[in-house]
Amino acid sequence: MPFLGVGLGLLILTGSSCFVLGAFYEHCDFLRNLHELIQEDPYAFYIREKLYATVATAFNPNCLHRMPDSCSRMSEIMKYGFPGLDDIRVYSDFVLSYDRRNRVAHWVYEHLRAPCVKADGTNINRKECWYQPDMSVPSNFRANLTDYKNSGFDRGHLAAAGNHKCHQTHCNETFYLTNIAPQVGKGFNHDAWNQLEIYVRELTESYGSVYVCTGPLYKPKRQLVGIATYSEHTRPTDEKWCVEYEVIGENTVAVPTHFFKVILVESKMSGGHPYMEAYIMPNAPIGKNINIRNFLADIREIEHIAGLQFFNGIRRSFFFGTNYSTTPEIYNNFQ
Ligand SMILES: *[C@@H]1O[C@H](CO)[C@@H](O)[C@H](O)[C@H]1NC(C)=O
Ligand SMILES: *[C@@H]1O[C@H](CO)[C@@H](O)[C@H](O)[C@H]1NC(C)=O
Ligand SMILES: *[C@@H]1O[C@H](CO)[C@@H](O)[C@H](O)[C@H]1NC(C)=O
């Protein structure tokens, strides 16, 4: 068996040189295979330094520091492509891109599966999860707990804690401040936004597999500027588009003006086309009894404002459809 093991190792090794130019999650897959090999084969364990050294250039540092398991999970989560490639951070059950300037993620990507969003029969304890800064972010780009304290804003989850109930570590990691953004509490985080999160979990329970990408928007708005008081006429040129947002704490954490969610529901039929829809909600007290479908948005608008591109891997025409105006329509028409 040792020979077979080493043979396998060399095979993977040769394979890895092709991976160097490929997407980097494939390196993670290689790492995982290597890890498995080492566990099975004592000989491979002794030459592991050599194996690692040979492919060192292919390693993604994120994969080295976390469990190799999370790397293969990453290729699953990112199946439909990366919306952007800025400062990618891989956690055990979600992947995010961190915006160092704003100290809030650009986007957070999750792949939800029915068993992990169920409220009952889980052994995870939210009380064991603590909000904490992610110390792997360089200190001058890092948000910390003091920034949020007395800011008047909630520490709002981008990847919702309730979506990651399969493992305590998965839930724990959603509390890293890299996955948190300042959100209006009453009327938004506790209400409208929470309803949207519940809706995504309901979709997951019905269809089994849902991809969701969540992030902040800093949306331009039309403002009247520099109107001379002596003038009797306000000309249209006195209006300009401006982006305006608050920043909180010493680390100037940005308060997004809006939040988006792009949702892709995989079909239960084999070979079926996925269904897609997107939402934009203002970071403001919206209220409790609202119809979330009032906030349906054009995915292209989100791409334009955020500078991201969603589901790059597939043509738009491949999608089953977008934008049903009522929730029952989805449940009736999409399988
Ligand atoms: C938070 O960051 C600020 C600015 O970098 C620093 O002065 C403060 O000590 C930090 N607070 C904690 C609790 O780390
Ligand atoms: C979750 O976080 C808490 C507090 O930081 C810690 O005590 C616990 O061991 C963590 N659990 C896991 C499974 O990582
Ligand atoms: C989805 O609905 C929103 C709101 O009604 C609309 O602005 C947008 O153009 C629609 N998007 C698509 C792709 O049909």
From TrEMBL:
Its cofactor is Mg(2+). It comes from the Eukaryota. Residues 90-317 form the DNA/RNA non-specific endonuclease/pyrophosphatase/phosphodiesterase domain. The active site is at H157 (proton acceptor). One of its GO terms (biological process) is apoptotic DNA fragmentation. GO terms for cellular component: mitochondrial inner membrane; nucleus. InterPro entries: DNA/RNA_endonuclease_AS (IPR018524), DNA/RNA_non-sp_Endonuclease_sf (IPR044929), Endo_G_ENPP1-like_dom (IPR001604), ENPP1-3/EXOG-like_nuc-like (IPR020821), His-Me_finger_sf (IPR044925), Non-specific_endonuclease (IPR040255). Residues 1-18 form the signal peptide. Gene3D superfamilies: Extracellular Endonuclease, subunit A. Mg(2+) binds at N189. Keywords: Endonuclease, Hydrolase, Magnesium, Metal-binding, Nuclease, Signal. Its EC number is 3.1.30.-. GO terms for molecular function: metal ion binding; nucleic acid binding; RNA endonuclease activity; single-stranded DNA endodeoxyribonuclease activity. It holds the Pfam family Endonuclease_NS. Residues 91-317 form the ENPP1-3/EXOG-like endonuclease/phosphodiesterase domain. Belongs to the DNA/RNA non-specific endonuclease family. PANTHER family: ENDONUCLEASE G, MITOCHONDRIAL, ENDONUCLEASE RELATED. This is Endonuclease. The lineage of its organism: Eukaryota, Metazoa, Ecdysozoa, Arthropoda, Hexapoda.
